[in-house]
Amino acid sequence: MNDFALWPVLAGAAAFFAVGAIWYGILFGKAWQKAAGLSDGDVRSGNMGVIFGLTFLFEMLVAMVLWHLIARTDPAPHVVIMMAVGFAVGVMIPAIGINYLYQRRSGRLFAIDAGHFLVGMAAMGGVFLLFR
């Protein structure tokens, strides 16, 4: 298994992106919008091409790091999922939690966003299992 492989990284990022589309679309879209304090106009005013494009690039970066770690350590399948979820629980979620504390964001917004990172990283780990 190569330290970097384009297809797993693209597929892992796509899985994370798909989770986000569902999470912030049909599952928690309105609740997230309310918790974030965004009006419909605020949401429509954003440059969605830039927002989605940068989101996917950031998710690619996360996928590259996780894939590299998996490639270097060659863990058992259950450990791949543990690494993906552990990265969310141990790094990503605390990082947004720290930011939200200082930004005085609500616990509800934190729960929605933290859930997205947790489920998105689990999906990425699951996709990576398909490429091993």
UniProtKB/TrEMBL annotation:
The chain crosses the membrane at residues 6-27, 48-70, 76-102, 109-131. InterPro entries: DUF1761. This is DUF1761 domain-containing protein. It comes from Erythrobacter litoralis. Coiled coil: none annotated. It comes from the Bacteria. Pfam families: DUF1761 (PF08570). Keywords: Membrane, Transmembrane, Transmembrane helix.
